[in-house]
Amino acid sequence: MLLMDSSTKISFNRCIRDGDLVIVYERHDTMKAVKVCENSVLQNRFGVFKHSDWIGKPFGSKVFSNKGGFVYLLAPTPELWTLVLSHRTQILYIADISFVIMYLEVVPGCLVLESGTGSGSLTTSFARAVSPMGHVYTFDFHEQRAASAREDFERTGISTLVTVGVRDIQGDGFPDQFSGLADSVFLDLPQPWLAIPSARNMLKQDGTLCSFSPCIEQVQRSCETLRSDFTDIRTFEILLRTYEVREWKMDHLKVNDGNSTACPPRKRRQPSSEASVGDNASSSAVMARPSAETRGHTGYLTFARKCVS
Hints:
Elements: E1 21-27, E2 30-35, E3 41-44, E4 47-50, E5 61-64, E6 70-74, H1 78-84, H2 94-103, E7 111-115, H3 121-130, E8 135-140, H4 143-155, E9 162-166, H5 169-172, E10 182-187, H6 196-202, E11 203-213, H7 216-226, E12 230-237, E13 243-254, E14 260-262, E15 281-290, E16 300-306
Parallel strand pairs: 7-8, 7-10, 8-9, 10-11
Antiparallel strand pairs: 1-2, 1-6, 3-4, 5-6, 11-16, 12-16, 13-14, 13-15
Helix pairs in contact: 1-3
C-alpha cells in the first residue's frame, strides 16, 4: 500500500504488514494485486503461499511456496498498478503517462484537474507527481466507475491526494470553485472541444492542457477550438517498440576465407545420428529482436498552453 507521510512525501512502508496491498510478481507479464491477510493463502502454479510468511518482510522480497516455487512481493507503484488494475475503460500506459506528466509540467504542489477518471491509471501517477502538497481532482460522468475508482485509490493509499467527483464535464464544465487555480488540465473525453472553454477558465495564466483522443478527427476539431485562447499547440503519437532479449544457440559454419560465421538462430537443434561435415561447432549468444506482440497506436496527445492576457 502507498502509505502517506504527511510531513514529507508519498512513500512506502518498507516492511509488509497485515492489510497491505502487494503486487505478486511471477514474471514480467504475470502479476496480480493481492491484499495481505494473515490467515489467507495464495495458490498458483508454483504452489501455496501463506500470507503470514509475507508479513514483516520488506517489499521486493522473494518468498517460497510449499513446493519450493517462488514469487516476488513488490510495492504497488503507479507503474505496476497500471499493469494490474481492473480495466473499466481503455487506459493510458506507461509511455503515454510519462510523456503527459512531463509536458503538463506536473510537479509537487500542483493542482491538476482530470476528466474522465476511467480506470484511474493516469490519476495514480498524477497523485505521486503532485505529492505531498498538491492535489488531483478527477471527474467521471459514470457514477459506478467513480465509486470503483475511489475504492482503488483507498486500496493504493493515495485517497488523501485525490478527490473523485461525478460530473458531465462536456455538458456542465468544471466546477467554478477551481476557476483560475489549476496548473494543468487533462481531458480524456469523446468530444473534448466541448470542455476546452471551461478548461481555459480553470487554468492559471500560462497553465497547460492535454487532450487524449484515439481518432485524428477528434484532434483536428480540438485544435480548431484551442487556437482562440491557447498557444504552443502540439500533437504527438507515442509508439513503443519492445525487444526480446534471450539466449540463442548458434551454429558456426566455415566459409572460404577461414573465418567462422553464424547461421540464423534456431530455437531447437534437430537430433541427427550423423553430424554434417560443416556443422562442427555450436555455441550460445545473447540476441535482441523486436517483440512479436509490440503494442501499437493507443491515441493522440494534444498539448496547449493558455495564452497570457
